[in-house]
Amino acid sequence: MALPPIRPAPVFPPPAGAPALPSPAGAPRRDPQHYHRPGTLALPAPPPLAVYVHLPWCLRKCPYCDFNSHAVARGDAAIPEARYLQALRADLEAALPLVWGRTVHSVFIGGGTPSLFSPEGIHSLVSDLRMLLPLAPDAEITMEANPGTFERDRFRAFAQAGVTRLSIGVQSFDDDHLRAIGRVHDRAQALAAAEEAARSFATFNLDLMYALPGQTPAQLDADLDQAFALAPPHLSLYHLTLEPNTAFARQPPALPDDDAASDMLDRLVERTGAAGYERYEVSAYARPGHRCRHNLNYWGFGDYLGLGAGAHGKLSFAHRVVRQVRWREPQAYMDHALAGQAVSNEEEVSRKALPFEFMLNALRLRDGFALALFGERCGLPPSVLEPGLAAAQARGLLERTGAPGAERVRPTARGFDFLSDLQSLFL
Ligand SMILES: C[S@@+](CC[C@H](N)C(=O)[O-])C[C@H]1O[C@@H](n2cnc3c(N)ncnc32)[C@H](O)[C@@H]1O
Ligand code: SF4
Predict the structure, then answer these.
(1) Which of 12, 80, 101, 379 is 20–30 Å from 206 (CA)?
(2) In angstroms, rounded to a whole number, what is the distance separating the alpha carbons of residues 147 and 226?
(3) CA of 146 to the centre of ligand 2 (A)
(4) Could you tell me which of 185, 116, 179, 181 has the C-alpha nearest to residue 148?
C-alpha cells in the first residue's frame, strides 16, 4: 500500500510575483541549487531512490477508504487517461533536476485503482519512466489492481507493459463481508483474479483485511485457508480501521472489539508463520525472496519521488531532507502539473523532527535496523537517539545487539505489540 501519510505543512514563503495558477499553499518552482545550499545536516550519500505514481480513480468509493480516490462511471471514457498521463510526464520532467543521475530501484503504481487504466496507458507510463530516469535493470515495478472481471482480463497485458509485481485488493473471500464493506467484486472474482495473477506474474501480493463487520474467528480462518490455497508469494494483512471523513466513520458498522481483533492478529501471525510466510513488517508477510522492495525502502527511510494527484514524496540532499505533496484533486493536479507546478506543498524536515520520522518507519521492521543507517539517512549523529533508545530498553520495548560500530536495534515482541508507545519515545 501507499505510505506514509505524514502531511506536510508549507513552510516556505510564497514566490515573488503572482503565480500562473492559484498556489495557496505556496510551493513555487525553485532553482535546483536552492536544495543544495548549506544547512545543518550532513548526509554522506543520497539514500536509495524509488518512485510512487498515484492514479486516483476507482469504480466506486469504498465506505472505509480515506485514500485520495475518486469514483468514476464504469468504462474508459470517464477517466481522462491521456491528459492524466501527459500531466504525469510533465510532473516527472519538472522533478528531474532534483534526482539527477540517481538510479531508481523500484516503482509503485498505486491508487485508487490503477488497473482501470488501459494496458497501453500503463505501457506509456512505464516507458516514460524508463526513458527519463535511470531505472535499475532489475527494478521492481508494482501495480495495484482490483479483482473485477474487466480488470482481470488485462493482467497479462499489464505484465507485458513492464509491471513485474501485481498487488490485488481482495480484502476477503466471504461474499457477505465483501458486501458489508461495500466492495464492487465478489468471492468468485477475487479467486479468478488471484489465479490470473499467479499465471501472469512471477510475484504478486494479496491485500486482506481482518476484524471486518461481524467477522468471527472461524470466518477469519476460512479467509486464511483460501488465501494459502492460492499460494501468493506475499500477503498484506490489515486491521480494518475507521478513518475520519469516511462513510464508516459517519455510520460505523458493528466491528469486533479490541480484544477480539487482537486475538485475530495473534491467530493470523501464528497461521501465516506455519504456512511459510515471514512477518517482516507490521502488516507485511512474505515467502523467502518475496519481500516488497519498494515498501522496504520506505521503512528504511529511503527517498521516493511521488508523482500524481496528492502523491507524497521525500527527497534528500547533502544538507536537508525535503517532503513534497502534489495537488490533491485530479483536475487541479492536471492543470497545475501541465503548467509545471505539480507540487502544492513542500517542507524541509526539521533537525528536531528527523529522529521521530526515521523511527516511525524503521521500527515497523521486525528485524529492526543497523544503527549506522540513522546517520546515513538523516545526516545526524546516532547519539541523538540515545535518550529514546535507553528509555525504550528500560521498558523492555527494544533490544540492541552487535559490537559498537556494527550495532543493530530491533523492537522486542512487546515493543512490536505496543509500537506506537515505542515510537513516541522518539518524539
Ligand atoms: C490503496 S488501497 C488500494 C487497492 C485497491 N484500490 C483496492 O482497494 O482493492 C490499499 C489497501 O489498503 C487497505 N485499506 C484501505 N483502507 C483501509 C482501512 N480503512 N483499514 C484497513 N486497511 C485499509 C486495503 O486492504 C487496500 O487493498
Ligand atoms: S477500491 Fe481501494 S482505493 Fe478505491 S475506494 Fe476502495 S479501498 Fe479505496
Answers:
(1) 80
(2) 15
(3) 9
(4) 185
Which residues have a Cβ under 8 Å from the Cβ of 115 and sit 6 or more positions away? 143, 144, 145, 146, 148, 151, 154, 155, 158
How many C-beta atoms lie closer than 10 Å to residue 113's C-beta? 23
Instruction: Judge whether 147 and 168 are in contact, CB under 8 Å.
Output: yes
CA 325–ligand 1 middle distance (angstroms)? 20
Determine phi and psi for 159, rounding to 5 degrees: -65, -40
Tens of pLDDT, residues 211-244: 999 999 999 999 999 999 999 999 999 999 999 9
The one-letter code for the residue type at 223 is D
Q: Give every CB contact of residue 319 below 8 A, 6+ residues apart in sequence.
A: 36, 37, 38, 39, 40, 41, 42, 43, 379
CB atoms within 10 A of CB 237: 24
The pLDDT value recorded for residue 10 is 29
Question: Is 337:29 a contact under the CB 8 Å cutoff?
Answer: no
pLDDT digits (tens, 9 = 90+) for 262-313: 999 999 999 999 999 999 999 999 999 999 999 999 999 999 999 999 999 9
**Residue 320 predicted with pLDDT over 80:** yes
Question: Residue 315 — pLDDT band, cuts 50, 70, 90?
Answer: very high
